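Action item from last week, closing it out:
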Amino acid sequence: MTASVVVKNWRWMHDDGTFATAPLSFALKPGERVILRGRSGAGKSTLLAALAGVAGQSGQQSGELLVNGRMPEDARGQIGLVLQDPYSQAVMERIGDDVAFGLENIGVPPGDMNALISDALAAVGLDLPLDHPTDALSGGERQRLALAGVLALRPTLLLLDEPTANLDPKGARLICDSVARVAREPNMTLIVVDHNPELWQDIVTRELLLDERGITESPLTVTAPATLSAGRAPSRAPKPTEVKPNEAKPTPLLRARNLAVGYPNARVAQVDLDIDVAAGEILAVTGANGVGKSALALTLGGLIPPMAGGVSVAAPAPDGPPHKWSSRELARHIGSVFQAPEHQFIGSTVRKDVGLGLRGRSHRAQLSAQVDATLTEFNLAAQHDQNPFTLSGGEKRRLSIADAVVMRPRVLIFDEPTFGQDDVTRLDLVTSFRRLRDAGHAIVVVTHDERFVNEVADHQLELTA
């Protein structure tokens, strides 16, 4: 059995009376495979959640939305959804149990589960023991686990929301190949949201574009992504240089020596790292999923202790390693952006969230002006009164960056800052990062975005297993 999709004049209204989208109308025949594109915040994730029957209670929908002629809530066993946030999907403590959870819910006999679980994990390249703890996975590994859990169910309608956003290039290609095999063999219907259509050009047959007017349909077109020229001046090389031991560099603002990193109570991910980042420099940290990039970012940011070696920040800064500083001292000197943006939201509105860190540091008028300028810089002025948790994935990412940047700490640590961004907002981030570098910040960026590395980084550190 395959799935048809019919959407007629459908739209979602939030509790505050605002609409997530214009009225939407389109139809998919059984077995069609499409890519859904649009600006960050256009409503793509809201539409996928509604198609999966999990749009939630914080709003109401109008119009018609049918899967195989039924409301999505009545067809859930036939629909598989991979969410945008990889940290919101794991429900069990071990990866084997996590994949088994869905199979148990649809009544698969226990004797048939092991083969389905193993096949699904192999399909997404997650080569780990079945009892491996889910909380020890990197963001990219969590994304693979989420997809494995859905693929094991063999749904007739597969909905993928930014499935490759947290993956290294090799992992992204593996995911696309896995989806291609599963989607083609049983003639599955597929809707994928991705800002990188070139990854899917051999899988999908057409493109749906979601904007303020609604949805328009067109044949798939893959064009070269928009970029900005690299570097700050014609004399600067467009490619970042690799970090080399004992290389002569400017006086570092952020320094690590003989550093070993890993999550508390977990294995050591990297050892013997020597890192220097001077004021006015951007260091890009790259590498495959699971090699310790996020653990390194948290360690450099003083949020977890090093397993060996040390981290220091040049004066004026508190004495001692950053992980022993107070939270107030950390916020003043090091700004961190986590891989999961929701983990750092504490304000009831976007504006309050950005302004909380400035309390006690500025006069009211100065605070208001600084918050306004930061919201404008990161394309969040229109969302200033929204609850942070109701933002789109791309908007949440930009808010987490705004939260870190508004206090203007000398050291900035970013984990996957371009996640969920369309071409326009991504280029705006490139401009913002160059501006921060020119203002003298020492910046570390963990990323899989090769274009972003070439456009903003002065140096590159590639971690290997």
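Closing note: Residues 226-238 have pLDDT under 50 and may be disordered.
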